[in-house]
What does this fold into?
Amino acid sequence: GGATMAPHPFTTIDPNVGFFLVPAPVGSCPEDDCDPSVRNELCVGSNHGRDSKGQRLLPVMLKDVAGLVPGAYQGRGKGNKFLDDLTDADVLIHVVDASGTADTEGNALGYIEDEGSEGGTEERGAGSHPLDDLGWIRNELLEWVYANITNKW
It folds into this structure.
């Protein structure tokens, strides 16, 4: 069991699924405003699903899905299968390599030296810029949704 790990890109093929509890924001549950020592018809809710301090806990399913490559929405690689793994998500969290040491295909490129702003040299990632990665990932998702709507409706 457990998630597959390897020292190469795109190790995840099938989603890894986990469940955990997160605290609800204070004041987001209707019963938070009620005095538990006073029972009346205006107090709704229950004390079930709370921790020892009375904080409401919400169940969350976290799904680690495979990484994407540009063109995934067109079926490149296993793109449509991977994108379809997102259909039951309420929220997407993008984990992006901020080092910039890999290209959009996930290939490790390491670091290069650039001339710094004060005449010295600075090391930076030889791969794509993390903000560029967020841009094409966002585009893949939008194109995938658009293609699903136009093809299936």
About this structure: The chain has two helices and four strands. The two ends are 39 Å apart (CA to CA).
